[in-house]
Amino acid sequence: MTMQPLESRRSRPDVSVVVPLFNEEESVPILYRELTHALRALGVDYELIFVDDGSSDHTLFKLRRITLEDPRVVTIRFRRNFGQAAAIQAGFDQVRGRFVVTMDGDLQNDPADIGPMLEWLDRGFDVVTGWRLRRQDRWLTRRVPSTAANWLISRLTGVRLHDNGCTLKAYRRPVVKRIVLKAEMHRFLAPLLSLSGCRFKELVVNHRSRRYGSTKYGLSRIWKVALDLLAVKMILRFISHPLAWFAVIAFPLGVAGLATGLASFALDRELVVPASVSVVLLFSSAQMLLMGLLAELIVYFGDYDETEPMLVMTETRGGSR
What we know:
Spore Coat Polysaccharide Biosynthesis Protein SpsA, Chain A
């Protein structure tokens, strides 16, 4: 890889690793050692950005100890639990590296896979996403829903990936600086990034069994994923022409309103459908079109500015006492 060696440091590191953490106190020291070993073996300058997503155990305490001892470590703490997408976004806001890697903090992702991912970025790809081919999770509650979700996401978005839910991904820095993550949108990063024409590479990665604690996800998140997928589908298809999205809704309402109005007029007093229903349908159709026109104006003239949320309580860089 054509990267800066450790012996010749620059103000901007080669690699930034972003790790969201929530109640992972047992995993933190092991993860730090594994990451340090893997990145030093690559001979690159790096920084580690740990984001404590409002943990209620001793995760923050252990992160602070590591931060004080290692100048490459950055710790960000949330006042409360805001979710993985917010944690990843907070990390993206702070990264300085030429390449950016995201991974889970539960030790299921293997830091040894970072090297091959960076190799593919160095070959010209914009995003390298992990594929947990031999996934070490429960079959019914994790693997089956994940397989179904990945198939549905691929079908609806047109971005063919086997594993959209794998947190282990590598990006070029300009790519993540264009991202604004909300809700649970971290699962749909690849489809969203496809809008800008990013070059993708899917790489089989090692997936390990969870050693400590319990998973933070289950079947209860299915409905959230479904709603987010609907939003992503709308963004992918209509972001450049939102009037079309509202027209899809307005057209059947207008047709139904016109049909009921004509039926009421033709039948005169022998009304099957009250005339007021026709008026409501036509008014709703017109309202949808007006909203679509307003959305077109916002897209054309608007300059979306994501105001930094008041999530971060503390941010510390290692080596300061």
